[in-house]
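Question: what's this shape?

___
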Amino acid sequence: MAAETAPGAGAGGPRPRLIVDCDPGLDDAAALVLAHHFADLVAITTVGGNAPLSEVTTNALVTAQVFGIGAEVHPGAARPLVAEPRHAAEIHGASGFEGATVPPLTRTASEVGAIEVLIETIRGTEGLWLVPMGPLTNVALALRQAPDLARRLAGISFMGGS
């Protein structure tokens, strides 16, 4: 059975346009680099998950800085909607980048928050894919405020589990 791909993701086709919503530990950092290489990365939104929001936002900024990713980084929800936050320090370390040596940070996060950029960008961009790779809190908050977003997206491709 052939795997499905996003429209335009084939060789020589147009690059799919993406917003990546993530909680960067080293796994999401690698995914950001791949998204930058193979797609038009429109924006990066961060959500507290693998580590606290301040840490994962810094990790997204470091990744963008080191790999020349021009997309702005927009911080989002610091915690789940209902439950207490549970970070993955035992997997990614307290910072989410445990063991990695990172350069001094020269980039700053956008003042436009994740929820606002999700709503505005999805409404204003045809053919946009949403790629959430962490907790779905930002996605839930954006859909709660703007239920029309679901029909405006080209698709959602998420990494999830239990």
